[in-house]
Amino acid sequence: MSPNLRDQEFFFELVDFQVRIRTGSIRWSLPLPSVEQIDGTVFRVYSTPFQDSVFFRELFYASKAKKHGRGEDQERTKQLRFKSEDVSAADFRNLLRVLFKAPSLFATRLGGRSPLPATPLEDGPMWLTVMRLVNMWKFETVREDVIGMIDRDGDDVLRLAVAVRYDIPGMYEALEGIVVRETPLEVDEYQLLGLELAVKVVKYRELCRARNGSAFDFDASDPSIAEIFGEPFAELVAARNRASSAST
Question: For the whole prediction, is pTM greater than 0.90?
Fold first, then answer.
């Protein structure tokens, strides 16, 4: 009898991840007949989205190479552990919520539909967590998906926080929205931006208001932006403003 062939379009490999809160580590394995939960949370998901990550591709390859060297059957792959600092079950769950609705993955590999329900992330800190993980684990197209989701759906504070923290030139224009709005920054927005960036934003808002009376005005070529935020920041704001003006 000829060996079974895996269908190129509809054969998915599952993977188990166990997040161990106390040790700060995550371990993964191909599904075994039973999964033992020690002191963490077990996730069983398609491995497809993780193939987009340089880190996970190397991890999967290293595990399989080691297994094949011992001549073990693929379905009996042993668990492999790797240390990952500051990753909780909640962090990993938020990443999965984004991975399983990433258009670049499911439009090309899963027929344009996610096999699992995707719950939208509720606030800015969750998105920052996802950005941290996709950068730390070197996701490629997924990173662009996440940036696109934030740019499309995020508010100006989140967009500016992501732009500065992860060097996303296209979202520096979010500064204008924060400057011209009437309401001051809230406590949670300070936390999202980080103290240093938040203080600079408030300082620039106060400068604009003192200069223009009660109204907040914004000029992307204002030299005060460079004085407060630094030259590289000011150049990105001006460049993005020019690009937006040219497209209109």
Answer: no
